Amino acid sequence: MIEYIPLTIALAAFIPKAQESDRKKLDTIFRNIGFGMKDQYPVLINTDKQDHYTSYIYRKPLGLMNNEKLEHIIGHSLSKPVHVSGKRDMEVRVYHIGNMPRWDYEDIPEQDEGKWIVPIGKSLDGMEWHDFDKTPHMTIAGTTRFGKTVMLKNIMTYLIERNPDDVEFYILDFKGRLEFNPYRDLKQVRMIAGNADDAKVMLKMVWEEIQEQMSYFLENKLNNITKTPIRKRTFIITDEGGSLAPKKSHTDKQKKTFSYCTEMLEEICRVAGALGYRNIFATQYPTADSLPKHIKMNSDAKISFRLPTGYASEVAIDEYGAEELECPGRAIYKTHDRVTVQVPMLEDEDMEERLKGWELSVAEREEVSERRTNLDDLE
Ligand SMILES: Nc1ncnc2c1ncn2[C@@H]1O[C@H](COP(=O)(O)OP(=O)(O)OP(=O)(O)O)[C@@H](O)[C@H]1O
């Protein structure tokens, strides 16, 4: 006589121990947090074991929506990186390896997908890239010493190496120009401002250029640079944007300058993406003041390194998680989707070595410094 064995028990016999306990824990988590409808909870319909992860596919009760915090709760409860996706059939991907090792810029793989695509980092699923022609503006948050500036330098180096004749940069380096000063003589660097007064002059100049570009687009019935043969793209990079947040100790004049710069950056994000301007705004402490609302709203790519609290993470990427990133270079890259990556490491010396071929000659430098002096007329 054939004895009847319930399907779940039969399946369990073939599930290795670690997976079995993850699977059991998932069921317990759903029940404990009430992720179900009435007395129905997601039912496991498939398991798929890959090298780096195991996918658990659940059929959810009709009408049950994924909760934004679900991934966070599961990851936390299993102490493993997880990714939750899908609608009626929900995939809970549980990664086997808890750490992604540090890796270097020189190991970035080749890509031929597009001129304005830059590497973000390696996730457990492979390389993540960002396309500035599809998503023009980006914010980067992260507490001190966790990798914001390295990320900015990766982006800058990669863009110059791939588009030396077509890319240009305006840099607001509120660390007193210290971070980007070594690159001031590159032909792609139009100007570096080290304080808010210089930034104001610089942004005025950028704004005038934008107005000219706007008139040209209107006259020629153009609506997006990506649909034109225009090859130039202009990046405005702000390192430590929190410096533009007004404090009580600031004078009225300083506050006015800060608010001018902030409004200009907001306007650039609002209107200049289609004209070929890309804004990258990095800040240590994301708050309503240090990450201005319109910059955030118009930046569809958000990157966050470690942050001190879940609240700061919510400000930076609209959800928890950045408070749990363990090490420098580990970041959450959020567009319509969210992925955790390890950003490639680029040492300053390596960057200087890679870019030194594009330093201006002495004669060219004089011409540039004249152009910079003439900026005073704009004040
Ligand atoms: N992608 C990375 N991989 C490995 N280590 C990294 C990475 N990024 C940064 N680090 C380490 O962290 C240090 C600080 O990085 P970085 O200067 O980018 O920090 P930051 O977030 O800009 O800090 P601050 O706001 O204080 O300037 C680097 O010198 C390096 O040792």
Automatic annotation (TrEMBL):
InterPro entries: FtsK/SpoIIIE/SftA (IPR050206), FtsK_dom (IPR002543), P-loop_NTPase (IPR027417). Pfam families: FtsK_SpoIIIE (PF01580). Transmembrane segments: none annotated. GO terms for molecular function: ATP binding; DNA binding. GO terms for cellular component: membrane. It is a multi-pass membrane protein. It comes from the Bacteria. Gene3D superfamilies: P-loop containing nucleotide triphosphate hydrolases. Keywords: ATP-binding, Nucleotide-binding. This is DNA translocase FtsK. PANTHER family: DNA TRANSLOCASE FTSK (PTHR22683:SF41), SPORULATION PROTEIN RELATED (PTHR22683). It is found in: Membrane. The keyword Nucleotide-binding applies. Residues 124-314 form the FtsK domain. ATP binds at G142, T143, T144, R145, F146, G147, K148, T149.
